[in-house]
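[job 0417] fold request received: CENP-V/GFA domain-containing protein
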Amino acid sequence: MTMYQGKCHCGHHEWEVKLEQDQSKHILCHCDTCKILGGGAFTMNQIIPKANLKITNGGDPSNYKYKGDSGNSVNCYYCPKCTTHIYHHQEIMGPDTIVVRTALLAEARKNFDVGAEIYGKDKMKWEKEIAHTFDVLPPS
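[job 0417] inference complete; emitting structure tokens
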């Protein structure tokens, strides 16, 4: 297991993320919500146990909820000063699993490959496939 350091755009929030070797890859999400939140064609993420994220500076992030495709709530946790989204908790995944933004980990931005793509059904028509692409999510 490797520890990675993350911080928000303004530096108010800092955190550590523990990833297993097979998690040291980006999962690209092409859903419309990620496009709106990030202002780009996709976000870079990894699915981890909540216990593997430790906020080390800035206190508890702010949060809000929206309804995901499943109809269940998605809780978004972000810096209240710069609005950088640190992680999301999709209630359908259970209480102990979160989606952390790997693009906010400096080492990950430089060194991670893409492991998979999700919400391929929402990809921009000009995007080429980078890794195995699931129409929505991989089978459970």
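[job 0417] notes: The CA atoms of residues 112 and 118 lie 17 Å apart. The first strand starts at residue 2 and ends at 7.
[job 0417] exit 0
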